[in-house]
Please model this.
Amino acid sequence: MQSSNCSRLMDFKVKDLTVDKRRLVQVSDNATLADALNVMVANGVRAVPVAAAPGQWLGAGGSMIVESDKETGSAKKQYIGMVTMLDVVAHIAGNEGENGLDKKMAAPVSSIIGHCPEGRSLWSLNPNTSIMDCMEMLSKGIHRVLVPLDGNMESISGPELVESASAYTMLTQMDLISFILHRSSSHLHAILSRTVASLSAVNDTVLAITSQARVKDAVKCMSVAMLNAVPIVEASSDEEDHRQLVDGKNRRVVGTFSSSDLKGCHLATLRSWLPLNALEFAEKIPRTPLFAAATSTPGRELVTCHVTSTLAQVISMVTAKRVHRFWVVDHNDGLQGLLSLTDIIAAVRSALLSTPHHL
Model:
C-alpha cells in the first residue's frame, strides 16, 4: 500500500506546484539596494531576481535565463542573479559612520550579487520536472528556482542553465513543503508520522548569539558565517564575548535574530536600532507597522520543536508560522539543534527513496 501511495506522489510534476503562483517579482539591475528591500517588503518575499538588458551580463553561475517576447521570441531581459535578505545583511555589515548605511543602501543591486552563495547561482526548473527531482535540487540548499510559465522545451525536465520564456514564476522550498502537507499528506502518512529524530533530520550543531549581542555585531556574525538566522540564547556571564557567535548547545533559547526581520524596518529605524542588543531588536520588530502589514499573526512567537516532534507537526507549524527553520529544544528550552526547510525536504526524499517502490 505504501508503494502505491508513493508512486502516486511521484506522478506529480513541478507544474502542479505552480498552478496558483503569481507572476515573478523582480528588480532591475540599476535599482538600488534600498529599492530592492522596498520591493521585498511590499511583496512579502525574502529574495528577488535581478533583470538586466540581454546580452550585457554573464548570469550567475553561468546561467542564461532570458525573458522573451511571446510573439517574436526576441529577448527582452536577462536574469543575472538573485538578491536576498542575507545579501542585505552582508552588505550593511561593518557599517560605520552616520551616513554609512544610506550610502550602502544606495548601491546598485548589480553590485550586490555574489555577496552570498545563493546569489552566485540562478537556476531554472522545467515545469515537467518530477517532484523527486525537484526535491533533490531543493534538498541541497537551493532555496528557490525560476520556473518558466511557457517554456519552449516541453520534452525536457530537470534543472536548466539555459532557458527562454515569456514569463516566469518563483518556486520556493516553502511552496514544496506546503504541497507535501496539503496535497500529498495522504500519500506520505507513514513518513509524516515519524519523529524528526528518527528521520535524522536534526543538525546537532547550531551557532547562536547571546542576548547581550548588539544588532550591528549580530549582523556582522551572520554575514561572515552566511547564516540567514541565528537563535538568541541567554548570556552566561558578563565576561562572555557577545560580539561573536557561540556554541548554543544546551543553552536556553530566548529569541531569534533573522535577516528577514530587516523587512520590518524603515531605513531610518534600522539606523537607530543598530546599537540595540539583538533581543531588544527582536522584541521591537513585531510592533513595527511594516512587520504587522506583512503578517497576519500579531506579535512574534518563538517557534521551536522537540526531537520527539513528528514531521507532520513540524511541517504544519512551518506552513502556519511561515518560518524557515526551527530551533530544536529540550523540555527546559535548552537548545539541542536546528531543523531547516532543507533538512525537512532531504528527510522526506530520503524516506521516499527507502520505500520498496524504489528498491
Observations:
- The chain is about 30% helix and 20% strand.
- Residues 33 and 274 are 18 Å apart (CA to CA).
